[in-house]
User: Which sequence fits this backbone?
């Protein structure tokens, strides 16, 4: 029985060894870093706040922008959660002996693919760039806005890898999902002609109207 248990432990250790990871991801595997984790989260928050640049638009546009942004965030969140549910990939820090036990206890150790932080960060950045460009197609600020917002999102991705939370393929997948959603949903609204939302409040109900 003891020999069987020892063999089972060895088998699990081998299956989780770094050599089991593809060469692309193996080139950037790091143990857990709490400081990088915290800074990466800060950059994600900055990316999510990027659409605040649209507060410079007319107040009558706030409901429309806010509604479409809410749709974008819900779609990005749902897709990244679906990915984590389907793949349940161990995070890179699990391949090191000093992995954080609290992450395991919280059930977060097997949510590596795709990166949720990066998905949300790129969704926020892409939304901000797309909608700003739609309102100001000839503005010279389009490039600076894109550089700043995507800079925050890219920093989020790099820090998620450096913190040991994700493989490179995790953050690349998150960036693709977030960008597709952040650009796609505003584009769909413009294409479908769903460009205006109005809210009516009465003592009995709250009603919304979409103008085509």
Assistant:
């Amino acid at each position: 029985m003891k020999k069987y248990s020892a063999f089972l432990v060895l088998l699990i250790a081998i299956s989780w060894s770094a050599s089991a990871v593809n060469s692309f991801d193996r080139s950037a595997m790091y143990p857990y870093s709490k400081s990088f984790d915290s800074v990466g989260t800060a950059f994600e928050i900055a990316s999510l706040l990027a659409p605040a640049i649209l507060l410079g638009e007319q107040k009558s546009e706030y409901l429309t922008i806010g509604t479409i942004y809410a749709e974008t965030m819900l779609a990005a969140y749902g897709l990244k959660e679906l990915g984590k549910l389907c793949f349940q990939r161990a995070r890179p820090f699990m391949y090191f002996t000093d992995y954080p036990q609290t992450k395991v206890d919280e059930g977060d150790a097997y949510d590596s693919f795709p990166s949720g932080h990066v998905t949300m960060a790129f969704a926020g950045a892409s939304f901000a760039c797309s909608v700003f460009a739609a309102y100001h197609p000839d503005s010279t600020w389009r490039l600076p806005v894109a550089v700043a917002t995507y800079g925050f999102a890219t920093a989020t991705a790099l820090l998620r890898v450096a913190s040991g939370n994700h493989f490179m393929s995790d953050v690349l997948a998150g960036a693709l999902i977030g960008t597709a959603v952040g650009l796609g949903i505003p584009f769909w609204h413009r294409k479908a002609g769903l460009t205006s939302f109005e809210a009516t409040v009465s003592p009995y109900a709250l009603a919304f109207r979409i103008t085509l």
Observations:
- The chain has one domain: 27-211.
- Residues 33 and 163 are 5 Å apart (CA to CA).
- Residues 27-211 form one domain.
